[in-house]
Structure formats: C-alpha cells, structure tokens
Write a structure and sequence with these properties.
Chain lengths: 112, 111
Amino acid sequence: QQKVQQSPESLTVSEGAMASLNCTFSDGTSDNFRWYRQHSGKGLEMLVSIFSDGEKEEGRFTAHLNRASLHVSLHIREPQPSDSAVYLCAVNTGGLSGKLTFGEGTQVTVIS
Amino acid sequence: AQTIHQWPVAEIKAVGSPLSLGCTIKGKSSPNLYWYWQATGGTLQQLFYSITVGQVESVVQLNLSASRPKDDQFILSTEKLLLSHSGFYLCAWSLRGDEQYFGPGTRLTVL
C-alpha cells in the first residue's frame, strides 16, 4: 500500500524567498505525482502534475521527481502572502480509477 | 467551461440523524467522480469513486454510501450519522483518472 509522507510539517518563509517542500512515497511505480494546495476551509487547487523523472514548471511552481529515490519536491518561486496555505502531495495509485493517496500536508506561511 | 458545485456549504447535524451531500459537475460528459473526506487535522482520504452512472466503488468503509443517479451528479449519504463523520467532504472529477479537479467542499459538524 502506497505511503506518502511530507516534510516539513510547517514552513515560514519571507515574501520573495524560495520555499521548498518535500514528499517521499513508498512505491515508485505509481502513474503520476501531484501537488495541490488548500486555503483554509476551501477546496483543493491543483498546482503541478508530474509523470516523468525530472522537472516540471507551472508558473511560479516547480516540481522535481526522482522515482529511484522515491522523492518529489515542490519549489515556490517568489512566494507571496496569498500563497499561505496547506500544500498537499498526492500520488495516483489507482490507474484509470484515479485513486489518489495524499500526504498529511505542509502548512506554508508567507510573511511580508 | 466546467464547473463543480457542492451542497450544502456547511451542515450541523445530530448524531443518529440522516445525511445527504450532493455534488454536480457541469460542462463535462461522463467524468470520473470521487468523494473525499478530511477529518479536522487529518489526511485527505478517498471514500468512493464512480466511472459511470449507477456504478460506485467503495475505497474506505466509514458507514457511508454513495450513489450516482445521473451522469453529472454524485450523492454521499448515510441513515445514521456518527460523531466520527465530522469533517470536510470534497467532491472531485477527472477524465479517465487524469488530473482531478476539486469542488469547494462541505463542512460537516456532527454533535
């Protein structure tokens, strides 16, 4: 059964500095890996979806995947206070059924 | 453009009472539909998924049931709520297991 762990639990960064989040998983054969974020009491907003080893950039968000080391990271360039949210790593473990296994999240706080 | 709507926005219910939460998707034909649950401070868990009308698969047993009466509608329900059902319920859609797009969620408080 796929296990997904995120670190750190919480992160405070200054506006404009780079924020880096980590996610490790137990099964590297999963189809794809995603990063979502959730503002307090709201639904999930998809940020980046990555399928192949390497890097994928979506605006200010860049994901790095390394299946061999069972690791996917998210980097937020020039974070703003509006980026303060819980960031969730999710692994697609269900193929066509689309079952996602989520990590517990990283609370990111961006201060001015 | 596709839209996903969940109702109600929030609900406060008594233990033992029935529950029905709804989700509709407009602008997409034959989407995969999903229900997720997030206990306060807990991890998001997938509860059910449906690939087609009338067919629902259970992923986690929580004394809840789900139905898909129409292509664009997904219903989550139970006849008797438990305290442990409190949390945030999210509906999502995708096309054949691809990226999932989430609704705004329903906050449920069971007292």
